[in-house]
Automatic annotation (TrEMBL), chain A:
One of its GO terms (cellular component) is membrane. It holds the Pfam family Sdh_cyt. InterPro entries: SQR/QFR_C/D (IPR034804), SuccDH_FuR_B_TM-su (IPR000701). This is Succinate dehydrogenase. It comes from Candidatus Thermoflexus japonica. The chain crosses the membrane at residues 47-69, 81-104. SUPFAM superfamilies: Fumarate reductase respiratory complex transmembrane subunits (SSF81343). Keywords: Heme, Iron, Membrane, Metal-binding, Transmembrane, Transmembrane helix.
Automatic annotation (TrEMBL), chain B:
InterPro entries: SdhC_prok (IPR039023), SQR/QFR_C/D (IPR034804), Succ_DH_cytb556 (IPR014314), SuccDH_FuR_B_TM-su (IPR000701). Its cofactor is heme. One of its GO terms (cellular component) is membrane. This is Succinate dehydrogenase 2 membrane subunit SdhC. It holds the Pfam family Sdh_cyt. The gene is sdhC_1. The keyword Membrane applies. The keyword Iron-sulfur does not apply. Belongs to the cytochrome b560 family. One of its GO terms (molecular function) is electron transfer activity. The lineage of its organism: Bacteria, Bacillati, Chloroflexota, Thermoflexia, Thermoflexales. One of its GO terms (biological process) is tricarboxylic acid cycle. It is found in: Membrane.
Automatic annotation (TrEMBL), chain C:
This is Fumarate reductase iron-sulfur subunit. Binds 1 [4Fe-4S] cluster. Binds 1 [2Fe-2S] cluster. Residues 15-92 form the 2Fe-2S ferredoxin-type domain. It comes from the Bacteria. PANTHER family: SUCCINATE DEHYDROGENASE [UBIQUINONE] IRON-SULFUR SUBUNIT, MITOCHONDRIAL, SUCCINATE DEHYDROGENASE IRON-SULFUR PROTEIN. The gene is frdB.
């Protein structure tokens, strides 16, 4: 788990920097209007890396949550359920994100 | 070990009495981590406005350019930078690299965090202003 | 001769512990252990604390001094001012037995599980009889098993199943020089969510260690070894 947390963390250094720079710092006014978001996500490369970012950040965040919850004195039995719950939550978040991005993208077509 | 009640154990990692840079770095890492997870949820929830069409989103964008929101953006960047830079520090230390320099590395992380946050805050207010 | 103020944690399990002030006259060249022993000898014979060698070799007198883990025997009084009380409390993350005394057996059991016994050969030659009541000699070089690192570790506060810095450092040392020992067992012991991966690199173990064991670096080296082993298994087709 430590290895994955470190690995996703290092990936996030790149993905989050790109996310921040391209979504806010090179955009006029710092935030995109609806029309610009649609145009932005229509680009296949952008779409792919934003989805990749979503997956990696969700995994990193939920693994972090588990690490903290383990420190509340959670035993192996509860941990099994915790892992299942967090995996489900993670898949839910990713599903929601992919659906939303896809939907926004479809507005541009 | 066996006598400490669960609530006490749960709060043990927050206890900074007698601790130094390493313990402080660990505590800040956790706190920024918790903050960033909460932010991630809020962020994803807010993005649902995009599905509600241009009016909903563009109204939000206008509100997000208020000074209060921009200040919160600065806070967010502070948290991200600390978590990211200390993440690099902790990854190296966790592999046994640079342990004798861990305290200096921590102050380096702090200095770099504050410096880049200041630059980013300047950028935020000029871009949005 | 200056009069020192010591604020000691007093009490027994089951009761509510409280901090009590004691005054003791000692030269500035004395050490904290001298002050506590003098309080025991002259003021209160019921005071519980551990001590033995008086020179940082036995690891018995670990306590928290003003919140920080120290060995009383190498904590000079001249570090402090007579005007302000020196607060002395028992180590954390061990079962409390009363006053400044904790039960270190959970740590000792884990150290025994690692089975470290790196000693000079001449200490173990057959013609040298063991002292009465001693089954075998075990000594882990730098580590004096004082438990300061366990008390300082924030993960230890949270997870009682965590092997802890001293034990992980012992495993790492054993792996370096196994002398025919079972390295696979040690690697399995360390390669566990409550083993080497549980460390959050708060670095407090190395910061308080009075004996240069540097458990934080040892845990790092142990992780590198575990990663290398995994990689090897992976390439070797899951052997």
């Amino acid at each position: 788990m430590w290895i994955w947390q470190a690995f996703t963390g290092l990936l996030l250094l790149i993905l989050l920097t790109l996310h921040m720079v391209f979504n806010h710092f090179v955009v006029e006014g710092g935030l995109r209007t609806y029309r610009d978001v649609v145009a932005y996500l229509s680009h296949p490369v952008v779409f792919t890396w934003e989805i990749l970012f979503l997956v990696v950040v969700t995994a990193h965040a939920l693994m972090g949550v588990r690490a903290i919850l383990l420190d509340l004195g959670i035993g192996p039995g509860t941990d099994r359920w915790l892992k299942r719950g967090l995996t489900l939550l993670g898949l839910g978040i990713i599903g929601y994100g992919v659906w939303l991005s896809w939907w926004i993208r479809s507005r541009g077509a | 070990m066996k006598e400490a009640p669960r609530w006490k154990r749960a709060s043990g990692w927050v206890d900074l009495r007698g601790r130094r840079e390493g313990g402080l770095a660990f505590l800040l890492m956790r706190l920024t981590g918790i903050g960033l997870v909460i932010y991630l949820f809020i962020h994803l929830y807010v993005l649902r406005l995009l599905a509600q069409g241009p009016e909903a989103w563009d109204a939000f964008i206008a509100m997000a350019k208020s000074p209060l929101f921009l200040a919160l953006d600065g806070l967010l960047i502070l948290g991200i930078l600390y978590h990211a830079l200390n993440g690099v520090r902790v990854t190296l230390l966790g592999l046994g690299i640079g342990v004798p320099h861990q305290a200096r590395l921590f102050w380096g992380v702090m200095a770099l965090t504050l410096l880049v946050t200041a630059i980013a805050a300047y950028a935020i207010f000029t871009i949005a202003g | 001769m200056p009069t020192w103020q010591l604020r000691l944690l007093r009490g027994r399990p089951g009761g509510s512990p409280r901090l009590e002030i004691y005054r003791v006259e000692l030269p500035a060249e004395a050490y904290l252990i001298d002050a506590v022993e003098k309080i025991w000898a002259e003021q209160d014979r019921s005071l519980l604390f551990r001590h033995a060698c008086h020179h940082a070799s036995c690891g018995a007198c670990g306590v928290r001094v003003n919140g920080r883990e120290r060995l009383m025997c190498i904590t000079p009084l001249r570090e402090f001012s007579p005007d302000r009380p020196i607060q002395v409390e028992p180590l954390r993350h061990f079962p409390w037995l009363g006053d400044l005394l904790v039960d270190v057996s959970p740590m000792m059991r884990r150290m025994a599980e690692v089975g470290f016994a790196i000693v000079r050969q001449d200490e173990l030659t057959a013609d040298r009889p063991l002292p009465e009541g001693i089954e075998r000699i075990t000594r882990f070089e730098d580590c004096i098993e004082c438990g300061l690192c366990l008390s300082a570790c924030p993960v230890m506060a949270a997870d009682e199943a965590y092997l802890g810095p001293a034990t992980l450092a012992a495993i790492e040392r054993m792996l370096k020089e196994p002398r025919g020992g079972d390295t696979a067992r040690l690697l399995t012991l360390a390669d566990d969510p409550h083993g080497a991966w549980r460390c959050h690199s708060a670095m407090e173990c190395t910061a308080v260690c009075p004996s240069n064991v540097d458990p934080a670096s040892a845990i790092g080296r142990l992780r590198r070894r575990l990663i290398a082993e995994r990689f090897r298994r992976w390439i070797g087709g899951g052997r």
